[in-house]
Amino acid sequence: GDLQLFIKERQKRKDRILEKKIMSYFVQVLQALQYIHGERILHRDLKTSNLFLMKSMQVVKLGDFGISRVLEGSIEAAITVVGTPYYMSPEVCENKPYTFKSDVWSLGCVLFEMLTLRPPFGTAPNLQALVTRIVRADYRIPE
Length: 143
Description:
It catalyses: L-seryl-[protein] + ATP = O-phospho-L-seryl-[protein] + ADP + H(+); L-threonyl-[protein] + ATP = O-phospho-L-threonyl-[protein] + ADP + H(+). By secondary structure, the chain is mostly helical.
């Protein structure tokens, strides 16, 4: 299964994910990003449904490199708007050049979702409203 399904199951049961498990998953994905970024690869679609949990539920793997991009140099930036809206960085939302930092932003959104069992920018009536929330950093931390 994937992390999205795992989170949905936890939502239904109103059962938070243990901090130890969240930290383990976060570090594993961070290490995967460190590796691919070292190879100058931007994932560009990091989200819970692209994080696959192995049967043991202890190992998480980063998958779906379908829209990833290899950058030629260390200062090159991508400009194509791609990715899943709930996890897009402000620069992607604003159609500005972006770098590896956008993948890190997406990982931050995943971390928020693991901790709260909901995406950081909640639900929005339409894409423009969601983009506005992301660009303005309009999120609520639940109590």
